[in-house]
Design brief:
Elements lengths: L6 H10 L45 H14 L3 H31 L6 H10 L29
């Protein structure tokens, strides 16, 4: 059944232009590539913005692999795309979390923090008749992310 109308010509064109295809198993360094030679739409170009990719092998539980394949089919994406997208999202989240933790460590070391006991008491007061005002930084200063303190009368 393969190649379908125009597919063979399209694949020859990609190869003649020096483009690399997924079926060739080479790194995706070209601007376009063929997603799959078994698909009826095998020859459509995909803009890759000169991205480079590296191969990584992972182990999945068989049930997870089946679920991934179903999701890939339902979404019209490849399993590789879904895995790559998930890993990129996870790495970005972890980098953001680590940056926040480093910033928190710097704030604590410089004396800008709220004591645990004060925060706990405030949170436990929520929804009660005696809700406490938000706790203040131990340094005594008002910071940009805090609401202004009322001025004392006296």
């Amino acid at each position: 059944m393969w190649p379908r109308d125009g597919q063979e010509k399209g694949i020859r064109m990609f190869k003649a232009l020096g483009e690399r295809t997924v079926s060739e198993g080479r790194p995706h360094t070209a601007r376009t590539h063929v997603h799959s030679v078994t698909s009826p739409f095998a020859c459509y170009p995909v803009f890759m913005a000169n991205t480079r990719s590296a191969t990584l092998s992972i182990r999945l539980k068989p049930a997870t692999k089946r679920r991934l394949a179903k999701l890939a089919e339902a979404s019209g994406r490849s399993s590789n795309f879904l895995i790559s997208d998930a890993v990129e999202s996870y790495v970005a989240d972890q980098e953001r979390m680590l940056a926040e933790m480093r910033q928190g460590d710097r704030q604590v070391k410089s004396g800008h923090y709220i004591r645990h006991e004060d925060m706990k008491a405030w949170l436990l007061s929520w929804g009660t008749d005696r809700e406490l005002p938000p706790p203040k930084c131990v340094c005594g200063k008002v910071h940009a992310d805090e609401p202004p303190r009322p001025r004392s009368r006296g």
